[in-house]
Specification:
CATH class: Mainly Beta
CATH architecture: 5 Propeller
CATH topology: Tachylectin-2, Chain A
Helix content: under 10%
Order of helices and strands: EEEEEEEEEEEEEEEEEEEHEEEHH
Number of helices: 3
Structural class: mainly beta
Strand content: 35-45%
Distance between the termini: 39 Å
Amino acid sequence: MKYKILGSPSVPDMPWQEKPADCGDIPIWRYTENPIIDRNPIPGVARIFNSAVAPYEDGYIGVFRAEQTDGIPFIYLGRSKDGIHWSFEKEKICFQDEQGNEFMPLYAYDPRLVRIDGIYYLIWCQDAYGAAIGMARTEDFKVFTRLENPFLPFNRNAVLFPRKIGGTYRLLSRPSDSGHTPFGDIYISESPDLVYWGRHRHVMGKSPEWWESVKIGGGAAPIETSEGWLLFYHGVTGTCNGLVYSIGGALLDPEEPSKVLARCSTYLLTPEKWYEERGFVPNVCFPCATIHDPDTGRIAIYYGAADSYVAMAFTTLDEIIDYIRAHSVVRESDSEIGRR
């Protein structure tokens, strides 16, 4: 391997499928058995999508956006031996406050899951008198303790870095308005304690590239590599029939991740298969998690498809970094520190 994944444990039995011969020049290929989670997965839940997973004990664990049959989204817990076939708890995750009292959000969706120093953190979008970011911690996936909301409304697409940088936690987010905003840039903020957040910096915005010309937002937790932080994010374009969500890729500076080192001018994955094009919200590929193995450089990407399914795609560290660099266009607003 030319490049290295840093700071991550080995995952020798991670889900994987070899690259097909007809993949073309795009360095990401879909799992042939997609979708891995279909509609109506458990009683009372119509669809699971836009969800996050992580290696845990002798298998995998996940936090899943589950649209209930009353239409309200909550977060459910799932477990898997192979990262592909999942079983789910029948009841939504029950959150508590720091005094141990039940403290449930009105709704919760698009969760991410990050492990830092042996503690797992959940980040999601919820109501805080407007769309805002919720956060909780767990050490055993039995007790989930909510932390203070990091930001005021309106904000979405929060992604926590998997380690402190320069002694502080870092969080990507996408400030927005009260609706499905026609704008959106990725920002980064830092905190000494996961309670007080500041030093907000602009990372990157939508671009003149048509596939991400409306807005962008964070996706999977950044992967630390020898070449910088590898970020899979979503980019959105508008068409006469609505929005289209595709997956993009970038490399961020290892010590000052508000600076973009490379940014792929083309999408990495865009809706083309039936489960991406046809669903509750058509034409959506929405990345939320990766499983990655430093020994082999293999990366499995979990993404929501058409707000109806969970799907997987694969790549390798060498291929994805070479492709991002070969197709990179970095503009001034990307490469600057992000403070004005």
